[in-house]
Amino acid sequence: MTREFSYQYRQDYLLDLSKDVQDLVVVGGGITGAGILLDATTRGMKAALFEMQDFAEGTSSRSTKLVHGGLRYLKQFEFSLVKEVGRERAIVFENGPHVTKSEPMLLPIIKKGSIGPIGALFGMWLYDKLAGVKDKEKRRILNKISVQALEPFLRDDILRSGVYYYEYRTDDSRLAMEVIKEAIDRKANALNYCKVTGFLYNGDKISGVQVTDLLTGNTYEVKAKAVVNATGPWVDETDAFDNTSRQNKLLLSKGVHIVVDASKLPIGQAMYFDAGAGRMVFAIPREGKVYIGTTETEYKQEISRPQITKEDRNYLLGAVNAMFHDIRLNPEDVESGWAGLRPLIKQEGKKPGEISRKDETFVYPSGLISIAGGKLTGYRKMAERIVDLVSQRLQQQYQLSFSPCVTDKTPISGGKVGGSEHFDQYVEQKVKEVKLPGWSEEEVRKIVHRYGSNCDLVFAITNSRIIAGHGLSPARVAELEYSIRHEMTVSPLDFFVRRTSAAYFDIQTVLKEKDEVFAYMEQRLHWNSSISTKFRLDLERELEYLTSLKK
Ligand code: FAD
């Protein structure tokens, strides 16, 4: 019987790994590491991944959550980047239409704005060409009246015209999770809360990793023929374990997003607009809220918990208030938010906003491979390049041969819905079929949208043995149980922040349900008192921080 991807089996997984030799160990469980794990596994490599926090707890749960062609990179003449990520977004969408959705976007052209009508026309034409945009999603140039019909709150005195085009909105942490789960289904191993604390060597060549399970303090040695460092903002820190590595490559740039209720900023579709001084911000509707971002400031403090400052928040509120009439967002309107760090490769004399978003691969004399930079959108292609390299090296050193990359045609977990064009039909069919006691139609719909072809596993939980005596709805328990059994959810924050994003988009419910969820998990997962105290403190500290963003 295959073991569930669950907290319960962590010790078994770790013991098994310490007795075996992997073809590849990936350090870091953000989208970059997740993509590499899946690619390696689909080619037949025995592969394992270690993540020191929760999966995607680094930058990969803190992005603008767009799978996009990167329109703004045209201004920096990054044509090849726009071409690659533009084409990738179609693949990412096709392989997981439950996580990524097409999102109409309006770009208002304003007087003295950073994009003029001619620039917009040319830029969009080039973007459509480079990014291979589908016919039905090609840009439309709108006159002022049409823009106002779409967005009556835009300021009349500065508006000139607009462009209507399409981006893709994703759920970044769920994307990483579904990619990891697909690799797990194909016999890979992945563990969160396991920190790589050093490398193993055979002579002067890297031969594995030393791992500490942060939940127990136990340390393990895991042997591997190849090791890839995919630790995003921590790449320099992880490379420092290897004395053949190059240091000081990264420049970290912080970007923040804030969340307000949709009634406070009632926009009809996502928007991308001028924020002054040549910068642009997004306002993106999601689940009855609108999130607004982002900023770009160099960051030199502690990497794990970047924070939103009052200046960051006020800058974003000011950008919205300057663009719309009769909309006055105040600090009290901010319900939640997040800050993330872009791991950029330093370029002499360039500010964060000017640095290329291209990824770069470093191969050191020890054999350690490190990857840094890049975008969420390009994760699959980045993984393909890295695993091509690993495959070549394993062929040269061990005469092992692996098949070529197939991830462009590999649906991720939950994505087996018969192709993106059938997803809406799939959702409606399920909503019609599934009738469960205590579930509303809306709850069924939400589960199908979130879990795609895994939704039946969530629904089946309602009929299985679960802990009684809690005050949670059947739908909530099913989702929580699913995440415990199949998504290695370890702490309440894993559930509230990265499995469901409720801490960002439904904080009122989180505040209402936090004690029940905590009690359910404590009983279900048999936490000892020190784990229980730690998780309680982490939960309270995070919720206090999120609710303080309005002050
Ligand atoms: P991370 O997600 O940070 O993953 C690295 C992981 O390594 C972390 O989880 C960390 O805990 C782990 N780790 C570190 N050290 C160790 C160790 N010793 N042992 C084990 N694990 C370790 N891209 C887009 O395509 N679209 C967007 O809309 C977009 N918006 C963005 C907005 C902002 C504000 C930011 C900051 C970035 C945005 N990006 C976007 C870029 C994108 O989010 C990043 O490129 C991507 O998430 C980086 O993923 P990663 O896996 O490389 O890094």
Structural write-up:
Helix content is 37%, strand content 23%. The mean pLDDT is 94. The protein starts with 9 loop residues before the first helix and ends with a helix. It is α+β, with helices and mostly antiparallel strands. It has 3 domains: 176 residues, FAD/NAD(P)-binding domain; 168 residues, D-Amino Acid Oxidase, subunit A, domain 2 (D-Amino Acid Oxidase, Chain A, domain 2); 131 residues, Alpha-glycerophosphate oxidase, cap domain (Helicase, Ruva Protein, domain 3, Orthogonal Bundle), CATH 1.10.8. The strands form 2 sheets. Strands 3, 4, 5, 6, 11, 12, 13, 14, 15 and 16 form a 10-stranded mixed β-sheet that branches. Strands 1, 2, 7, 8, 9, 10, 17 and 18 form an 8-stranded mixed β-sheet that branches. The chain is globular. The structure holds flavin-adenine dinucleotide.
What brief labels describe this structure?
single chain, 551 residues, alpha+beta, Helicase, Ruva Protein, domain 3, 3 domains, ten-stranded mixed sheet, 18 strands, binds flavin-adenine dinucleotide
Q: Would you give the CATH topology of the largest domain?
A: FAD/NAD(P)-binding domain
Mean pLDDT value? 94
Q: Count the DSSP helices.
A: 17
Inertia-based shape: globular
Q: What is this structure, in a nutshell?
A:
The chain has helices at residues 10-18, 31-42, 79-95, 117-131, 144-150, 172-185, 235-239, 310-323, 379-398, 423-433, 441-451, 455-461, 474-486, 492-499, 502-505, 507-525, 529-547; strands at residues 21-27, 47-50, 66-67, 101-110, 140-143, 159-169, 189-191, 194-202, 205-213, 219-229, 250-261, 270-276, 279-286, 289-293, 297-298, 336-345, 359-363, 369-373.
